[in-house]
Amino acid sequence: MLETDMDNNHESVPLGESNRGKSNNQNRKQLGRRSIGRLHILLIIMGIIILILLIVILVLVFMKEKEKIPPCSSGESVDLSEPENPSIFHDLTSKEVKGMLEFLYEQKDLNITRPAKIKVKTSYIFTAELHLPEKADAVSYLDSRAGQKPPRQARVIIFRGDLIVPKIMEIVVTPLPNPTHYTIWKDNIPFRYRPVSGPDYNSAIESITKETDKKARQLLLESFGGTLTNCNDACLAFKFMTPVSSVLSGRQRRLYWFWMYQFVEFYILHPVDFAVLVDMDDLRYSIEKVWFNEHAFDTIDSLVMQYNRNTMQKNPILFPYMTDSLFSKLRRRNSEFSETPQRPPISIEPDGRRYSINGQHVKYMNWEFDFRMSSTRGPQLYDIRFRNNRIVYELALQEMSVFYSGYKPTQMFANYFASASLIGAQDKGLVPGVDCPSHATFIPTSHVLESSEEVVTYRNAFCVFEFNTGMPLRRHHSFSSSRGSFYEGMPNAVLILRSIVTVVNYDYILDCIFYQTGALEVKVVSTGYILSTPLTVNAEKFGTQINDNINGNLHQHMFSYKVDIDIEGSQNRYRTLDVSTTVSSNQFNPDPTANIIQKQFTVSEKKTESEAAYKFNFDTPKYHLFYSNLKSNKFGVPRSYRLLSRGMSKQLLPETEGNEPAVSWMRYQMVVTKRKENERISSSIYSGMDVKSPVVNFDSFLKDNENILDQDLVAWVSMGAQIIPHTEDLPVTHTPGMDLSFFLLPYNYFPENPAMGSPDSVRIEPTMYNNPSSGVKVSGFDNENLQCKPPVNNYQEAVEADPRILFEK
Asked: Could you tell me if residue 316 is inside a domain?
């Protein structure tokens, strides 16, 4: 048995060893395969590491090469520091403002209250800005530089609510920075003419909000889905006002309609059909009328009573959800563009800026001018010269007005004058890379406002930049030898001085553009949110439906500019070249009765202001020329500048009806008057309220019908546009097609186009005259050292670090 067992064991050993051998072979094969797999993985990992290292090396090499690319040169100098000795056109400096305020607070007869304690019934400064010297004194100093510099002065607007009979005063404080006296510029302006100021507005809003919320809270909640107070995320608010002038109300009272809105982004597109008429003369700010769902009520109580009795139709509007897809919100959505993000083109100055700025004085190519920002009227330019010859003494925005139409009183009476909102103080926060190119020079402006004892400075208010328009300034291609083979052209590089003012809902881009030809363009472009009303049955003829509950109302934008033109001195004339037709016999036709009709032009010299009041007529085309009768070119033709307007619009309201007299400058496309020191501006901050007895009566500029031959002349240019909103105006209007402009163009002023001397021109011609097969020679393309880094746009970091660059406190 044992042997058997042993034998059995003996027999079993070789068998076990054989199996283990096979198993070991399999294991060895498996281990081999694992080793090869690990090796493959290791090789892949090493390959990836090598690839990453190569990428890193390439990036480092690229970065190193990129570091070798020099930054674009800064070019001409820019010095924006406040000058110790400012020019006669420079805005008030902080030193001058400090001296002026200290002086005014010491004047017992003015009784001026400091900003922290101002109320309607106190005497306080509404605004102050530079007051220009008389032109004769300024020109004498500018042209000789030998005479005495005119003193620096400030014009201050004071609301005298402290008097028994309140009034508005305008005074001139002089000399700055250490004034010794003031003189009255305008006095006894009725107190009810004043624009709505901080104390007024805050008290009125507090009063009407409290009364409306107390009496009509449930009505508002049911009708519009929100309340005025304790509203969390469903707030209603009175956010807009419509002035009602005495000529429209029939009463010598200061009345305003206050509109209500659902307060979301952007509230102007979420109006509700609720408004209150407030007497702003009554410092209790009493509500005189209420408008709700197409009906007027004498009091809120009577409205609520009828509402609760269910005697009126109810049209509830849901409160909007504040989401990124909300139609009124300006956030990117519904993208149908390429998924691949690619940046838009940018412009650079490869050799640096070709203009210089010293304070508020600019030099560019052959141009030179001063600029400033009027708090009340916006951007102003002075002493504009080309080749050191003055072309314009003053180029200044005067007013921006918008007249609306509508069934509701909020738009029926909506005639707005931007100067009442202080145009210049609405200019702030230009964004590099969007509002202006990143390479632009951004310039601050300063204002004296009722809310501060110190000068208020807004950064990025102006921008100055040179820009290639992408359009040739000139070009000609003579491509065949029969015409003489050559090409000559020049890119149109211009200098632009830009400001953008935002008056509540509309943004106005205001440009002055300087061409190398000696031409000057003034351009206005509007964008922003339209003013709308709730859609109701009576709204159709006054506008169009643009959303579920919104009507976009018909309105007209109007702009007034002053252009004090000085061609070869200030003794100028104004003439038109009138184009008409003439009939003459056609001697080259066998029919003896045959005629030929063609165009001709005749010279029409304007001798009086009434003759120079221009209304556009397609049947009488004409050129408008300004010139000195003492200066002609070698052909005996007056050296002139032509004024060409491409922004003309007709004011359809009948003359003298309603608020039309407040925009009497809009009756004409251009008016030429003899310059007078007491006719400095065409409009005023009081225009919305003073129609019956205007503080500035532009119509009177013409009524004296002065002689304008060989006089110092001013052209008052008006532009405008009728706007009927459409759905593409949501959420905001866009700029294409919204530009209005006028030009000052040299006309026989130079012997040839002055841009012929520009280094920007390009010429390509055969090496041998008129023989293209000889090869070509090219001049004007300068590619040497062209590669440079554009300036870095650090605006995102700057605004994140200091939001005051863009937003108010």
From this structure: no
β-strands 78-79, 355-358 pairing: parallel
Nearest to 561 by CA among 415, 377, 734: 377
Q: Quote the distance between the C-alpha of residue 650 and its chain's center.
A: 22
> Which 3 state secondary structure label does DSSP give 504?
coil
- Number of domains present in the structure of the chain: 4
Q: What is the mean pLDDT of residues 733-760?
A: 96
The whole-angstrom separation of Cα 537 and Cα 534 is: 10
Nearest-angstrom CA–CA distance, 501 and 766? 52
One domain for residues 399 and 507: yes
Q: Report phi then psi at 98, rounded to 5.
A: -60, -45
Same-domain check for residues 465 and 525: yes
Residue 129 shares a structural domain with residue 169 = yes
Beta-bridged to residue 533, according to DSSP, are: 551
Domain match, 495 and 611 both? yes
Tens-digit pLDDT profile for residues 317-339:
999 998 888 999 998 887 777 77
Residue 163 φ then ψ, to 5°: -85, 160
Query: 695-733 burial, b for 16+ CB within 10 Å, e for fewer?
Result: bbbbeebbeeebebeebbbbbbbbbbbebebeeebbbbb
Cα 473 to chain centroid distance, Å, stands at: 25
Kind of pairing between the strands at 255-262 and 236-244: antiparallel
**Tens of pLDDT, residues 18-45:** 444 445 555 555 555 556 667 777 777 7
Q: Residue 611 is encoded by which pair of tokens?
A: 């003759």
| 463 and 518, same domain (yes or no) | yes
Interacting residues of 650 by C-beta distance below 8 A, sequence separation 6+:
616
What's the pLDDT band for 620 if we cut at 50, 70, 90?
Answer: very high
Residue 517 to residue 756: CA distance in whole angstroms: 8
- Rounded CA-CA distance 672/716 in Å is 6
Based on the domain organization, do 374 and 495 belong to the same domain?
Answer: yes
Both 234 and 129 in one domain: the answer is: no
- The string of pLDDT tens digits covering residues 580-608 is 999 999 999 999 999 999 999 999 999 99
Could you tell me the pLDDT band of residue 774, with boundaries at 50, 70 and 90? confident
**Exposed/middle/buried for residue 518 (C-beta within 10 Å: 0-12, 13-18, 19+):** buried
The CA distances from residue 601 to 621, 622, 709, 806, in Å, are: 10, 8, 21, 53
Please report, for the domain that includes residue 668, its CATH number.
2.70.98.20
CA 640, CA 389: separation in Å to the nearest integer? 13
CA dist list (Å): 83 to 150, 293, 497, 713 = 16, 58, 21, 32
pLDDT at 488: 93
What are the strands, taking DSSP E only, across 12-83?
A: 78-79
pLDDT of residue 9: 39
Calculate the dihedral angle through the C-alpha atoms of 672, 675, 676, 681, rounding to the nearest 10 degrees.
Answer: 60
Mean pLDDT, rounded, of the chain: 91
Q: What is the pLDDT of residues 480-532, one digit of tens each?
A: 877 788 999 999 999 999 999 999 999 999 999 999 999 999 999 999 999 99
Show the domain range for 608. Answer: 358-418+458-529+555-723+733-760
Helices H / strands E in the chain, number of each: 9, 35
